[in-house]
């Protein structure tokens, strides 16, 4: 009770800061338009009563949730699903699912906002992608006796240590969780060490391995590659963050010294950075072409300044670097390029994807670089040795294929929950 009182006092005192971070306009940052009140629980009632509520906070979680949602609807076409995201970019991906779902923005963790949301949506259960745990969400669901399941859950050693220091808070969070479907045994052990009952834990594997790109993505990728140039070496740097782009451009300049026809497809993680990165490319005296503009012949950098088209651009490249890893960010999904049979490059910061990293690394399907110099060397080796490049790519695809099945395992537990 004391933890709850302190927590609610803090979130209300800090609410101007929290709301400012969410709503403060930035150049290129998509806004929420007239739908911003949904974050306060002011949502419209769903078309169908008693939907399953699935929460995927942003882009990464929404990408992982998409094949699961399709599988649920294939097995239970009559089951209504309402998806919430916190971010606009996550919402844009959710909307691509069309009639399979309804979308609302998730309520912020104010008790009154959560209560209002639940009253208007009246869900039959809550499915949370990964480990997005909010005290007032869980408490409100517990009071309504709504089952809560955490899907594709992971708990890093770093996060487990934090929860150990505030064990009472974790007990408060976990008391109203019905089941946690963990990515691997290490995650399950950490949850158990924090006091979660073993009968509430299962190991389903990572849903991210069940990624499956259809033929249309590959066709669109080929059409893009034809526009960019079939014979030139093309690499992509996907989901990059501030602090990485300059390093990537430095590596590309080194590559250009040896392969003047090389092309870098550069895709920043957040849309508000598109123009900023475009200006950086020009300052580095590199010729720029943008996805949203007419193509520039023989450009040295192609800026992916759209949302939701990363798979197409991955399919168009020969080699893929995954961002969020040359800075202390923890990396992004290494399996997106691997599923397309692309050799995967990453920086050293991969703590968000340790298990996936180990599997790829252990099967010679991934190359780790620590800086722009090592990245340039790795790129040169991959482009100079086609058999090596194709071998790494085939290994990456095999790791994905060999580890599929998490969605089927997760569906079994969802069926039990419902």
Taken from the alpha-carbon principal axes, the silhouette is globular
How many domains make up the coordinates?
A: 2
The assigned structural class equals alpha/beta
**According to CATH, what is the class of the largest domain?**
Alpha Beta
CATH topology of the largest domain: Rossmann fold
The CATH architecture of the largest domain comes to 3-Layer(aba) Sandwich
Biggest sheet strand line-up: 3-2-1-4-5-6-7
List the helices and strands and how they pair.
Elements: H1 2-13, H2 15-23, E1 52-55, H3 59-75, E2 81-85, H4 88-95, E3 102-105, H5 111-121, E4 125-129, H6 135-143, E5 148-153, H7 157-165, H8 167-174, E6 179-182, H9 185-193, E7 201-203, H10 215-228, E8 234-240, H11 245-258, E9 263-268, H12 274-283, E10 288-290, E11 301-303, H13 310-316, E12 319-322, H14 335-339, E13 344-346, H15 354-362, E14 366-368, H16 372-384, H17 386-402, H18 406-417
Parallel strand pairs: 1-2, 1-4, 2-3, 4-5, 5-6, 6-7, 8-9, 8-12, 9-11, 10-11, 12-13, 13-14
Helix pairs in contact: 3-4, 5-6, 10-13, 11-16
Could you please describe the fold and organization of this structure?
The protein has 418 residues and is an alpha/beta fold. The chain folds into two domains: 200 residues, Rossmann fold (3-Layer(aba) Sandwich), CATH 3.40.50.11720; 188 residues, 3-Layer(aba) Sandwich (Rossmann fold). It is 46% helix and 14% strand. It is built from 18 helices and 14 strands. The protein has a seven-stranded parallel β-sheet, with helices on both faces. The chain has a seven-stranded parallel β-sheet with strand order 10-11-9-8-12-13-14, with helices on both faces. Helix 14 links the parallel strand 12 and strand 13. Helix 10 crosses helix 13. The chain is globular, with a radius of gyration of 22 Å.
């Amino acid at each position: 009770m004391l933890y709850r009182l302190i927590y609610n006092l803090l979130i209300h005192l800090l609410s101007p800061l929290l709301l400012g971070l969410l709503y403060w306009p930035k150049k290129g940052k998509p806004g929420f338009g007239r739908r911003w009140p949904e974050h306060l629980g002011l949502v419209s009632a769903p078309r169908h009563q008693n939907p399953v509520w699935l929460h995927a906070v942003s882009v990464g979680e929404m990408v992982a949730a998409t094949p699961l949602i399709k599988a649920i609807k294939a097995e239970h076409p009559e089951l209504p699903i309402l998806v919430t995201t916190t971010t606009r970019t996550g919402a844009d991906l959710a909307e691509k699912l069309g009639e399979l779902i309804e979308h609302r923005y998730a309520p912020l963790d104010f008790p009154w906002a959560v209560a209002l949301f639940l009253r208007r949506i009246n869900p039959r259960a809550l499915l949370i992608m990964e480990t997005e745990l909010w005290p007032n969400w869980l408490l409100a669901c517990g009071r309504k006796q709504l089952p809560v399941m955490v899907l594709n859950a992971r708990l890093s050693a770093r996060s487990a240590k934090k929860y150990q220091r505030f064990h009472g808070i974790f007990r408060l969070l976990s008391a109203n969780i019905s089941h946690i479907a963990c990515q691997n045994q290490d995650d399950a052990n950490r949850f158990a060490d924090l006091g979660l009952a073993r009968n509430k834990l299962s190991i389903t594997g990572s849903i991210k391995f069940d990624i499956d790109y259809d033929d249309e993505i590959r066709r669109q990728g080929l059409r893009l590659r034809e526009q960019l140039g079939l014979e030139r070496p093309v690499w992509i740097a996907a989901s990059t963050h501030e602090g990485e782009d300059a390093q990537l451009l430095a590596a590309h300049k080194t590559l250009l010294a040896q392969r003047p026809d090389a092309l870098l497809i550069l895709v920043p993680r957040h849309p508000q950075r598109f123009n900023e990165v475009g200006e950086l490319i020009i300052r580095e005296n590199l010729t720029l072409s943008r996805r949203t503009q007419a193509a520039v012949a023989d450009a040295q950098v192609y800026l992916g300044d759209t949302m939701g088209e990363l798979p197409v651009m991955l399919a168009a490249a020969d080699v893929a670097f995954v961002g969020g890893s040359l800075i202390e960010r923890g990396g992004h999904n290494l399996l997106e390029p691997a599923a397309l049979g692309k050799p995967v490059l990453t920086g050293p910061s991969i703590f968000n994807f340790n298990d996936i990293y180990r599997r790829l690394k252990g099967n010679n399907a991934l190359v780790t670089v620590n800086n722009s110099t090592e990245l340039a060397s790795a790129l040169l080796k991959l482009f100079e040795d086609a058999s090596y490049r194709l071998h790494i790519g085939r290994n990456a695809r095999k790791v994905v294929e060999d580890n599929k099945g998490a969605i089927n395992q997760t569906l079994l537990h969802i069926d039990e929950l419902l």
